[in-house]
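Input sequence (240 aa), recorded before submission:
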Amino acid sequence: MQLIAGNWKMHGRLASVAAIDALVAAGPVPGARLLVCPPATLVARFAEAARGSHVEIGGQDCHAEPEGAFTGDISAPMLADAGATHVILGHSERRAGHGETDAMVRAKAAAAHAAGLIPIICVGETLAERDAGATLEVVGRQLAGSLPAGGPLVVAYEPVWAIGTGRTPTPQQVAEVHAFLAARVPAGTPVLYGGSVKPDNAAWLLALPHVGGALVGGASLTPRDFLAIASAVPAARDAA
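Predicted structure, C-alpha cell format:
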C-alpha cells in the first residue's frame, strides 16, 4: 500500500468538508491509503466526516509539549483528540519560515508518538544545495537530526525548489534520494515524494523504486485530482 497524503496548508473553510464527503463517497482506491491534512481548524470536522471510512485525517504541525502557555500553538494530544492519526513535521515552509531546527522536529516527533500519532518527517534541499552537489549531505543531516527514538513514522522527501514551482526532479534524481533515505530508516517505513505532485506526473513518480507514496500540495485540494493521483499507484493501475 502506498500512502497518498494531502497537505492543505493554509487553505479550507467549513464548507470544505464537502471534499472529504467526495473522497469517502468515491470509495477505497486499490493499493492506496488516503490521508488529508487540513488546517487545525478543520481537523475535527474532517475526522467526523471521514469516521469509519478509508480516509484518514492528519495535522500539519504540533508543539513539542502536550499543553502549556503557548499561545497559538496546537499540541499532539489535541490533534489526536480531534481525530487525527498523523501529523506533518519539519516541512520546508516551517523550517524556513519559522526557524525550525532538526532538534525541534525531533522533539515534536517524540511528542507525536507519545500522543499516538504517526509523524510525517519532511526533508529536502534548496536549489542552491542541489546545484552544489550537497543534496544527500543535506537530507542525510536533516533525517539523522529529526528522527525520534523508535516508533512508527513516515518520511517525505520534498526538494524545496520543486514545491509549488511546477518543476520536478528527474526520475534518476528522485530514485537516488529515495534509495538513500530508505537505507537509513527502519524497514517498512514509507518514504513519500513531495514537490509539485500532479495527476500528470504521479504515475512515473509512484512507480520508482523506494517511493512509498506522495505528499501532495495544491492538487490535494480538489478531490478529482487527489483521487487521480491515488489511482496512479501501480496496484490501482493494474486493477483498472
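Checked by second reader. The chain has two domains: 21-42+53-90+101-119, 124-213.
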